[in-house]
Amino acid sequence: MSGEACLDDRGENTCRGAVEYRFPMSGTGRSFPRCDKHFDAALASYERINNDYPDSDVPPAWFDPMAAGERWNEDDPWP
Predict the structure, then answer these.
(1) Please, what sign has the CA dihedral across residues 28, 34, 36, 42?
(2) 4 inside domain
(3) Which helix (H) or strand (E) holds 20?
(4) Given this model, what pLDDT does residue 44 score?
(5) What is the pTM (predicted TM-score) of this model?
(6) How far apart are CA 45 and CA 28, in angstroms?
(7) Residue 20 domain flag
(8) Torsions phi, psi of 29, nearest 5?
(9) Over its length of 79 residues, how does the chain's per-residue pLDDT go in tens digits?
(10) 67, 53 in Cβ contact below 8 A?
(11) Euclidean distance between CA atoms 25 and 40, whole angstroms
(12) Residue 19 resides in a domain
């Protein structure tokens, strides 16, 4: 245990498990203290975002450029 408060502790007593400095998912290289529960939630959110918005030139099946007149990447022609 790091002795630090969980980053996601907002005084609601929702933290569970050990509070430790965890692997940074943002790529910033800086880790933050999180309890087991909130770290698991952060991992699930990170995985959902990566699945919904992959780092790829190929858009996911759900992407519809006509829905908002947007492009998946800058090389795509405007609809």
Answers:
(1) negative
(2) yes
(3) strand 20-22
(4) 95
(5) 0.70
(6) 17
(7) yes
(8) 85, 0
(9) 457 899 999 888 899 999 999 988 777 778 889 999 999 999 999 999 988 888 888 888 888 888 888 888 888 776 6
(10) no
(11) 12
(12) yes
H/E element, 21: strand 20-22
DSSP secondary structure letters along 32-46: EEE-HHHHHHHHHHH
- Indicate whether 15 belongs to any domain: yes
Query: 6 is in which domain, residue-wise?
Result: 1-54
- Euclidean distance between the first and the last CA atom of the chain, given in angstroms as a whole number: 53
Work out how many domains the chain is built from and give that number. 1
**DSSP conformation class of 23:** -
Residue-wise burial string across 12-26, b where 16 or more C-beta atoms lie within 10 A, e elsewhere: eeebeeebeebeebe
* Model pLDDT, residue 35: 96
3-state class of 74 per DSSP? coil
